[in-house]
Request: fold
Amino acid sequence: MTETLSAPAPLGSPPAHEVLLDVRDMKTHFKVLDGIVPAVDGVSFSLGRGQTLGIVGESGSGKSVTALTIMRLLDIPPAVIGAESEVWFDGREILHMPLDSMRRIRGKDMAMIFQEPLTSLNPVLSIGEQIGEQVRLHLKVSRHEARDRSIESLRSVGIPSPEARIKQFPHEMSGGMRQRVMIAMALSCEPKLLIADEPTTALDVTIQAQILELLKVIQQRTGSALLLITHDLGVVAEMVDHVVVMYAGQVVEQGTANEVMLEPKAPYTMGLLESIPTAEKRGGRLSVIKGVVPSPFHLPPACRFEPRCPYAWDLCHEVAPELYPVVGSGSGRRARCHLHQAAGESRRVAALELHADAMRVGRGLKEDPA
Amino acid sequence: MTAETPQSISPAGAPLLHVKGLKKHFPIHGGILKRQVATVYAVDGVDFDVFPGEVFSLVGESGCGKTTLGRSVLRLTEPTAGEVQFDGTDIIGLPVDELRRLRRQMQIIFQDPFGSLNPRMPISDIIGEGLLAQGLTDRKARDKKVEDALETVGLRREYTRRYPHEFSGGQRQRIGVARALALEPKFIVCDEPVSALDVSIQSQVLNLLLDLRRDFNLTYLFISHNLSVIQYFSDRVGVMYLGKIMEVGTVDDLYRNARHPYTIALLSAIPDPDPRRRQKRLVLKGDVPSPVAPPPGCRFSTRCWLREQLGNPERCTTEEPELRVISTGHRVACHFEDRITATTVADRVAAQSVIDTAIAAPV
Amino acid sequence: MSDVFSNEPGIEAERLRRAEEAGEDYEVGLESLSQWQLAWRKFRHHRLALIGLGIIATLIVVAIAGPILMPFDFATIPVPDKIVYQGSPPSLAHPMGETGGLQRDVLELVVNGSRTSLFIGFSSMFIGVTIGTIVGSIAGYVGGFLDNLLMRIVDVMLSLPILFVILVAGRFFGNGSVVLIVVIFGLFSWMGVSRLVRSQFLSIRESEFVEAARAVGVRDRRIIFRHILPNAFSPIVVVASLIVAGNIIGEAFVSFLGFGVSPTTPTWGNILSNALTFIPLGNWWWPMFPGLAIILTVLAVNFIGDGLRDALDPRSRA
Reply:
């Protein structure tokens, strides 16, 4: 496992070659009547070529806005992008490049799958026309070649008799089939990065299984990197190697999937994992994260999770925590919590022990997962 | 924390809700003359009982009819055929006035915390409306009860003059619970009550529902597509597919010893948040067929992996399997349930292609 | 009944725990705003709509106060000694000039006309919206045969050449009375509203909050008046504003053709109509000011409609 997740490069200069996507201090704010919504507020992460990264968070965490900002799909205004924010993709800074250049990257080197395929496919164009259009735009091939390529990409996502299917329109297909078409379209130009924003949230559980398995196989086959955005901890655990957990516009924890899901270090992640209903918790109460996600107009003064945090103390109300390296872990492992500073040492030990206890009960494990 | 486990309740004695042969068909009208051109077989002959104090869950994918079923047992939509008895009273033939009185005892909590509260009504009216409809015309007494109900679901008494948009999703769902609770019902249909909520809020609402059940001796009909939530929350579960119950049993029956090929596939499809448990899953082919034209014979036959493995026996497409008892309280609607072993499942998982899953087998 | 929500200590502790779990207020510190207050907040940010509202408010004040300050009574107004063909252009004494012929003050005419024109626009809108809401509600709530019947009537009404019908009706019952014009316009402006209300009923009837109300035993009447209509109100308001604009133009048009309100009661339309023969004489001020008044009113009403559409749209939360 590489450590590219945290590979630091000086601002304004490209990251190392093996880093495909490097997001640095991304700030996306929205100006609305009531004030400013800091939807994404200083988010940094990176993704290596061919790797998989999951961004997990609840509604309002900023995970989808992060993806849309990378794709440059937000309207400016109301969105305001931080002047110092940088997104490096394949050696080029894309956040502030002219939109024309971005359009050449988007759909070709960087493609996106959305939650609701029905609204992201054009209802009056046949499937073949939609995929073909994109292929011809980016690859400058003949109409005939584009058609062959469309058929091929449909076949690769398991759509039977694609020669006939390319004449169909989106409304003639089922939800699962449409999501396959979206994937085929995204993959038609062999992108280096595939961004999937809640690709299975609108689907039934058996169709979700189909699409997830398909995505896994295809990602491995094509070698494109995958940025998966989801609220579902189960999907993350199954699909990706690295995880970034977001809360109220900030990254609160990052690490490998195993690290984050088995040994979470930020109280928010700990609480999330503890609250998942399992068979072993039957008959008892679920542990909960109390309260609600703060309104973006009234964010807590320091740590944004502090009002809901069971481990919070005075410091958490006074000083905003940084994304501290986690003691005793690799350099890609970080948590935004004062527990991971020297000042929080004794509290950290107690908190992690409490969490481990809760998880042992919840997972029905006799021994410590480590 | 007391753990009088929900599981300890055994289905004995008279059921609180008895459903037999329930059908709900929706006509589709078309053409200029608005003639009926087709029928949606949303619920197509369902039997089950819910016993006092238990949580009976219905699980299934969209279009399986679970929501329609929940509405039909409350007569929020009029069933096409069948029997529904609540506490010994046949509610299908009940005159409107008596049905209204009975509504005190049977309530419903909805999925959408935004759509289920009238945006133009203050909380006091939303919760108090049922009391008013049930004849509590004294404003003061009503307000008192509204405030009590709010407090019972963990909200502040002062919120009564506020409007729904001032609350977050989880809080709105609590308001929806308070609305149902204000009438002091015995029985509540919970229609996907946590599906629209964030993970961190889901557990709050589940806790609340379990607390209320214990405190007020409630019986729940819990409808959900989330198998993990159902496993945690229920005593008994019915698995629905295309308007029919495919398998019904206790949580242990279903989650430890599922006997219907569909249940097995459903369980295999749950993504597990523990990365160490990553495993190859059994992937079903195709989508759920349209309830307008359910497949002949067994409704699951078009997507059934077991049928494929057994060399497509004819019986699956000619004869509709009955929901038959295989052990006490555990019933399965499958002709070949006895052919399922650990190896059949493992063989299938090993042999399947995860790419060619887009369409189901031809009938 | 009260024992269910009893205050036993054990239950009290439970309750506290639940309150603790539920957490604090969503928007702590935000004052409690009703839907209408929120809508007004959004409306305020729509500059054109605010200007429109200002114009309409001013016109209404003029329409109410104007005729009192400068009354116009056709019967008692003195006929000038000599009839001139040429009116006089705007001056200090007559800011909008004087008409030819009877040498009326154009300002006086426009001010008095505003009362009639606005009265016709708004009253006919009220009639249309009332009929449309009733018809649409019945069709949408009852459904079935009645729905079919009512909607076919709407289709027939919509296929009538309205202007022609109004002209004929005006001639047939014709005495040029304002009330008649109001009634005719009212009777011909409900169809759009009824279709809109019907579709609102059909969708709101299926909403979960209506289902919830039925589940607790709420009766049909209350469901219609407390649940469906208030939620159908915003699109009705938007359409109503457009009807006002349409009917003011319509009245002007009909009066211009001489089939509307009799010239003894000035409206913007019949002032224009009277000016017609004097336009070749170069009396531009005579038709211009009532014309401007019409344009200004219709624009203002449309701006307000636009603002309302944005402000009342629940999807635009910002």
In short: DSSP finds 13 helices and 13 strands in chain A. Residues 1-7, 365-370 of chain A have pLDDT under 50 and may be disordered. The interface with chain C takes residues 30, 32-34, 78, 288, 290-292, 295, 297-298, 307-308 of chain A (CB under 8 Å).
